[in-house]
Specification:
The complex is a heterodimer of chains A (251) and B (477). Chain A has 251 residues and is of the alpha/beta class. Chain A has ten helices and twelve strands. Chain A is 41% helix and 20% strand. The two termini of chain A are 30 Å apart. In chain B, a hairpin with a 5-residue loop joins β1 and β2. Classes of the chains: A alpha/beta (251), B alpha+beta (477).
């Protein structure tokens, strides 16, 4: 049943449209610190295609120097770098008050590794091998900081979420959600119009770090969608083929 | 070790061979002894006969007859068993022979004659015939002296008896020594067997015990250990090669993925009226799916390599496995429902504590659940359960009512890329259970695969992980 729902939504606009929205604004300056030439080339090419302005450093000291002197909105940093390792570069930058979001890349998926990456000042952590869509989605998510207010109510288009009463309404219609569905929708409502990959959802909503069966997250989304988007409603939860899902709310 | 084992060792067989050689040697010695005795006795007999003859020849002819008649009372009886005087025509004159012995010739040499005694036994005697002067001058007579071989026979019997007496204790002692040696050898072999069993179970670090004796068994154990070192190294290299290949594959695959994405994006913007657009999109979708499977295989391979070589224990802590199971059931419940399966957790009172890494155990649970979902038909049931056994060992299990795993396939399913015959048509990397095996190994736990024998169940499998029991003392030590 989820299959048919997915098919219907696959026809939705390609996620790069969200970037196109951003093209009107100032372009995002991104610094990539990666020593593997072919991988760096691939990343640079892909991100430029998505509208980023990308500079690249290939060693630790070079990366540190460029990050310190240049104006960058985003930093993508490999952990293993010649000269000075990525985490030391990151720690130095944070000590010097640099606050731009940093995504750490690593070949190791060990959890302790991930934790040390985040402790050193990384905002997100991605393990190789990754698909470009995953990287793109995570960068986008980093640029759009999630909505964390003191408010106990999240309001987004037709959706209203009461965090204290644990109730959700769509244009006055009560939506009855299981706790796990509530958690999932809350996460998505805090990151509207952002592509969320399956791994991001599994890591952040469920706190799991394994490679899931491809349709595990899809089934959860499918169930949530059937409750949120009723017949005749404008679909809010959308599948982005090859990338993940998106809660699209008209501005 | 059984009794028959004791008699089947090389040491015992060697002892049996040695016993045979000893017995043969003793027999040979006996034969040599007999030769020595008979030669000695022959020389003694000849000497005695000649000396007696020379003494008797000195006697006057008349006295000689008297001496011979009285022989049984004189010292001659000691040396001679037969003595008689014959005339030229070989008619008896005096002595204890009533007739000329058949076959006896006149001559200076010693002669050997055998007789059949009245009791049919054969006796051998040596004879000497000498010419002595007769009563009338010019007439000579023949003096016949004989000595039997009874002395040799007696000595022979004594030698035989003593040899037999010596042989029995020697053989018994040798057999006993053989059994003792055999038992010792078996003890060492048993130790080696248990080491080999461990290695076969996958404990590649285990080695055969090497004694300080430097005997052939120790040297063999040393050689086997060196061989195992080499094997372990080769296995490591092979694993590294596998990891390197997986590592190297992902960059080109990531590029393919990126390009495919771009082609796809172009396709999306094409006019929908273009012929075959739908078929093109279908093909692209299939490519994406296969590529995704490639990535999942590579990721799983690298993950296994990481767990196997890394031996990472940093994330280990004492933890309760019950919430882990509850959460995982919550995650998998919708997908089970979609497949028409029921998934539930059997409640457990209190915590089930074990020493482990929560993330890794989640990975195990997810893989086992994936597996159960894959092989269970709609209408089936998947049960999660945790507990402690009578040895205070914590365990948890995933129980399904699926196709089941044949007994002979149960150990093979843990191997990399193994797919049971029944599951050929079901997609998957074939690595899920190897990943489980690697994580189980890291936790020093054991994985038991059983048939689901619940009453209302036709077939099905139970995967149960049993962990070492957690005691404060163990962890502090």
């Amino acid at each position: 049943m989820a299959e048919t729902t997915l098919k219907k939504n696959e026809r939705q606009p390609w996620p790069s449209e969200t970037h196109r929205e951003g093209e009107n604004q100032t372009p995002v300056n991104l610094l990539l610190v990666e020593d593997d030439d072919s991988l760096a080339e691939e990343i640079v090419e892909d991100l430029r295609g998505r509208g980023y302005v990308v500079k690249r450093a290939s060693t630790g000291p070079e990366g540190l120097e460029m990050a310190r002197t240049g104006e960058h909105d985003l930093l993508v940093m490999d952990r293993m770098l010649p000269g000075l390792d990525g985490l030391s570069v990151l720690e130095t930058l944070r000590e010097q008050g640099m606050t731009m979001p940093v995504l750490v890349l690593s070949a190791l998926s060990a959890v302790d590794d991930r934790i040390s990456g985040l402790k050193a000042g990384g905002d997100d952590y991605l393990t190789k091998p990754f698909v470009m869509e995953e990287l793109a989605a995570r960068l986008e998510a980093l640029l759009r900081r999630p909505i964390y207010g003191r408010t106990s109510m999240l309001k987004l288009g037709p959706l209203e979420m009461d965090l204290l009463e644990r109730r959700v309404r769509r244009e006055g219609r009560e939506i009855d959600l299981l706790p796990r569905e509530f958690r999932l929708l809350e996460y998505m409502m805090r990151r509207p119009n952002t592509v969320l990959t399956r791994t991001m959802l599994l890591e952040d909503v469920w706190n799991y770090r394994f490679v899931p069966r491809t349709n595990l997250v899809d089934v959860h989304i499918g169930k949530l969608r059937r409750k949120v988007d009723k017949e005749g409603d404008e679909p809010l939860i959308q599948s982005i083929r090859g990338a993940g899902f998106c809660l699209r709310v008209p501005e | 070790m059984s009794r028959s084992d004791l008699f089947r060792t090389a040491a015992f067989r060697l002892t049996l061979g040695l016993v045979g050689i000893i017995v043969l040697g003793m027999l040979l010695e006996l034969v040599l002894l007999y030769g020595q005795i008979s030669t000695y006795e022959k020389l003694r007999t000849d000497d005695l006969l000649r000396r007696s003859a020379s003494v008797l020849m000195q006697e006057a002819p008349g006295d000689l007859e008297v001496r011979l008649k009285e022989r049984s009372t004189s010292e001659l009886r000691v040396f001679l068993n037969a003595a008689a005087l014959f005339d030229k025509n070989r008619h008896p004159i005096a002595g204890d022979m009533k007739a000329w012995p058949a076959g006896l010739k006149f001559g200076p040499t010693m002669q050997k004659l055998s007789f059949v005694l009245p009791d049919h036994s054969v006796t051998v005697m040596r004879f000497l015939v000498v010419e002595v002067p007769g009563m009338q001058p010019g007439r000579t007579r023949l003096l016949v002296l004989g000595r039997s071989r009874h002395m040799i026979n007696e000595l022979w019997q004594v030698a035989q008896r003593s040899a037999l007496f010596a042989m029995v204790p020697v053989v018994l002692f040798a057999l006993l020594a053989g059994m003792v040696l055999s038992r010792r050898a078996l003890g060492r072999i048993t130790k080696m067997h248990s080491s080999i069993e461990q290695i076969m179970k996958g404990q590649m670090r285990e080695r055969l015990p090497v004694g300080r004796g430097h005997d052939e068994l120790d040297r063999l154990a040393g050689s086997v250990n060196r061989m195992l070192d080499r094997l372990e190294q080769l296995m490591g290299e092979m694993r590294d090669v596998g990891n390197d290949i997986a590592h190297d594959l992902r960059t080109p695959l990531a590029r393919v993925q990126a390009r495919l994405d771009r082609v796809n994006a172009v396709a999306q913007s094409l006019d929908p009226s273009i012929e075959d657009k739908e078929r093109f999109e279908r093909a692209m979708g299939l490519c994406q799916r296969d590529l995704e499977q490639c990535f999942s295989i590579i990721t799983a391979l690298l993950r296994i390599g990481e767990i196997e070589t890394g031996q990472r224990r940093a994330g280990f802590q004492q933890m309760d496995v019950v919430p882990l199971i509850m959460d995982m059931a919550d995650l998998y419940e919708p997908i089970a429902e979609m497949q028409g399966l029921s998934l539930f957790v059997v409640p457990h009172e209190g915590p089930v504590s074990l020493w482990g890494d929560a993330d890794l155990l989640n990975e195990v649970l997810a893989n086992l659940l994936d597996n159960a979902l894959k092989f269970t038909e709609a209408g089936g049931r998947i049960t999660l359960r945790a507990g402690c056994n009578e040895l205070q060992e914590p365990w948890f299990e995933v129980r399904d009512t699926g196709v089941g795993i044949a007994v002979e396939e149960r150990s093979a399913v843990m191997g990399r890329f193994y797919r049971a015959d029944k599951s050929r048509h079901i997609p998957g990397s074939g690595l899920g259970l190897s990943l489980v095996a690697a994580i189980v190994c890291l936790h020093e736990a054991r994985l038991v695969i059983e048939e689901n024998n619940e009453e209302d169940v036709v077939s099905g499998t139970v995967f149960r992980l049993i962990f070492p029991s957690v005691t404060e003392g163990d962890r502090l030590a």
